[in-house]
Each structure stands twice: as structure tokens, then as C-alpha cells.
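To whoever picks this up:

The parser on our side crashed when reading a file containing two proteins. I've narrowed it down to the boundary between the first structure block and the second sequence. Both blocks are reproduced below exactly, byte for byte. First block:
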Amino acid sequence: MRHMEGTVHGFLVLRSTEGRVLAVGDLFQVVRRDRVTSRLLFRFKDGSVDDETAVFSQRANFQLITDHHIQKGPSFPQPMDLSIDVPSGQITVRSTGKDGKEEVKSEHMDLPPDLANGLILVIAKNIQPETPETKVSMVVAGPRPRLVKVAISPHGEEPFSLAGSHRKAMHFVLKIELGGVAGIVAPLIGKAPPEIQIWIIGGIAPAFVREEGPLYQGGPIWTIQLTSPVWPDLPRSGF
């Protein structure tokens, strides 16, 4: 941990590759002593929801405590409701069966201390640009949850502008490593997870500025960026 997290309310927009706005997002983050609760909520125009709440501690390192990630609605062909409780190692998946009833499956996993569900952006903000690669663990949903590695590597600075002011952001590439037999077979059958691109502006207070990649396995490439409120024109003065 190089930069402590603080209270945040950020505004985000999610677009298709054609630039069409699909969803508007809010990042809520509150801090109580050394514990941070971070919620990233996207509301889609078609009624879909992507809602993830991560609770983690920040001392010498960031340590995930719990994570709850929900995806539902027309934008998500395979709805997800995944809960992770790190201290107990309990993973809970909720789904709807063919009869319309809720099905709950739980299993125990030996979760590593570098588990990064809900923390990828926090971790990226703390990576030194000269670090060639940083690896963390993640639980991914599927027919049954599995533990994978995510390799995060810097790919240099890239320019962008902010209201006409020229800035630069560090470009990071995230690659999911399936491992085992799945990692060998996936590239051969064309199902290797695509890379995810993240841009972080550095300095004394690093901040997320952009992400490109799918939000679920086999999903389309979407772009997430910071956005700002737009105010209606104020009525003209009578003077």
C-alpha cells in the first residue's frame, strides 16, 4: 500500500465500442478507521444492473474481507450473484433455477491473502510504473467458482486531455491466467479470456481514468470512464 483510500463519490459512464452510452455508474467509498467499504454500481438503460461491494482493510497492505458482486438484466446473459467471505473462506453463488426458484450453492476455498475481487483499481493505483509485473488472485464465477491469477503489467504513459489541458495516464494491461489444464486448452479452443486495459493518472493522488474490456466471460468490450455532471443552462438575467 502506497496510497491510502479515502471517502469518494465518483461518477462514471459505460459505453459500447461505437461510443453509445449504455450505463451510468456511481462509485461510493467510505472509510471507518482502517476499514474501507467500496461500492461500484452501474445502472443500464435496459434495466440491467452491475453492483459490486467490497470491504477491505488498509494497513501495510490492502486485505479483502468480503465481496458481493451482482450482475442481472438483459445485458448479462448469465446473471451472477457471487459472495465471498475471506476470513471463513466461504463462497456463495445464488442463481435462479429452471423452475424460477432461487438456488444457493456454497463451498469452502482456501483463499490467498492477495485476493483482489473488487480491488483491482485500488491495486493499480498503487503499482510503481517501473514494476514489470504484479500478480494477484481472483475468484471468478462460472458453473462453479474457481481461483485464477491476474497479471498486471505497465505499458507506458499515454496522452489524454482534460477540458483542453494535456495530461498523461499510465496504461496497465490485465491478463487472466487460468492455470492448470484449462490454461493450456483455452487458447487452443479460442476461449482464453481477453486482456483488460486500465489507465491510471499518477502523481501524489493517483486516480482511475479509463477501462476497456468485458464485464463478464465472453462479453463485449465496453469502455468505462470518469464523467462530470452537466448543468442545464441558467436563465439569462434581465439586466
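<<boundary where parser fails>>
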Amino acid sequence: MLVILLLCILSGCKGEAKNGSAAQRTAVATTTGFSGDAAYNYAKAQVAFGPRVPGTPAAKQAGDWIIRQMRARADTVIVQSFTYTTADGKKLPLRNILARFRPELSNRVLYLTHWDSRPISESATTEAEKKMPVPGANDGASGVGMFVALGDVLKKTKPTVGVDLLFTDGEDYGQFGPPEVDVLIGAKYFAAHLPSPGYKPLYGVLWDMIGDKDLRIPYEMNSFQQVPDVVSQVWQAAADLGHADIFVQESGGQITDDHVPLLNAGLRVIDVIDLTYPPHHTPHDTMDKISAKSLGIVGDVATALVTRR
């Protein structure tokens, strides 16, 4: 499969042979038990709190909500609370939330997504909008919605491996640069404060911006270059489910995201992200731009990876 992936990077092949008919796609896509409608509604609940900018009441309420939801589903929930001092001296209260399924198993898979949203909309077209916070329906809430819906499945169906769902805070606070300033904060903290000595999951997947109505997920090239076997495993699972037209065998370029600090710490983590999203970092990243169908497709893949042998 890795050879096929490398050839496809060079030739631009799309893997059409694995797409299947529409009827086959519908039949296969429902077999994991994941609900895209549930994921959409959970994402909507996050957005309803308002922009989840660290240090705001909305962030406090949204974080408390995530903790409640995961305590009702997971076997164990660990909250990493810490204070981060920004480059301009501001003290930010931050929380990473780690929900663990089958914590007794040593063979584990780490999934992560960020739950904060951006304080400014620098990609907006007007100066007034640039000063507004991002609602973060896709960039923040989509991953949270998918994780809570995945928790619904894993509570009923034991995964075949231990599963850790990590909600990171402070991913989108500052500037991505170069240089990077006050971003990827929660992921960096987690990389330096792992849940146990020698914590080494089999692999990890960052799920970010996965709800776009016009969903199309190419390879993130930091992931492809450093852990191509994990990319192969995830894209093959998507193809097996009939989603090869969404998880496309093309380069999406290198992206600075929460997987980078974990890769730097020696964890085998890839990024699943659709960065071709016009409302990105604008006030228009709202619920009408994402869909239950897209969340269902990605949730389908995430579920299959940890529930099927």
C-alpha cells in the first residue's frame, strides 16, 4: 500500500476503483454505528456557547460541557489544567481533556482535536471583521462533535485497542508565523506532560476541520513524510468504507498543527485536515458551513480504525 501511495503522489491517481457504487457506499458507511447527525448536534452545542477563546466565560462553559459529556461515556477522564503566559504577559487558564476507553490496555490509539477557537479573524475581508472572534464551527467544534459522537459508540461497543481522546486547548490562540507565537499550546503541554511514563500509543490521529460541506482530505505532508505507514492505514480504512473520494491520494502540503509537537516528542501522529475552507479564520465559520454527512464520513473512518480488527 505504501508503494501505491507514493506512486499516487507522483501521478495524481484518485483510487476510483475503491469508490464503489452509491448504494454500496450507503450500505458500508452505516456499519460502524457512528452518527453524523449526533456529531453535528454536539458541534452545534459547542458553537452555542459562543467563541471558545481561552480565558472567556464561553470557554469555561464549553470546557465544562466537554468534561461532563466524556465522564458520561469514557472509563476515565483526566483534566490537565494549567496557566500559560503569553508573549505579551497575559495569563491564560487552559485545559486539556483526556477521555480514556479501556485504560487497562497497553496497546493504545491516540485521537486528538482542539476545542478552542480563534480570538481574531485575520482572514476576513474587512477591518471590522478582522477584529472579531471566530465562531469555530469547523475549526474547533467539528472535531469536538465527532469525538463526543465517537464516545457514544465506544461506550456501547468496546474498542479493540485502548483509545485516548484528547481535546487540546490553546491551539488557535496566537500567530502561526513564522515564527510561531502562542499557538499549539495545549499540544505542547501534553507532549511535555504525557499521561504516564513511557506513554507510546501505537499511532495517533489529529482530526481537525473535518465538517466542511465540501469535504476533501488530502495527505498532510509532515504526516506522510514522517509516518507514512499510519497515513496508509487511515486512507486504506477510508477506502475500505467507500470514502476514497473524500480521503484523496494527493498532497495537501505541510501544515503546522497540533500533531507537530507530538511528532517532535516521538509520537507517531498524523493530521487529518481539510484546509481548503473559505471561511477559515473568519466570522463566517458557522454551523451552516458544515454538515452531518461530512462528520459521518470522518467519524465512520475514526470508528472503524479502533473497532475492527
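After patching the parser it read the second block fine. The chain has a mean pLDDT of 92. The CA atoms of residues 45 and 145 lie 8 Å apart.
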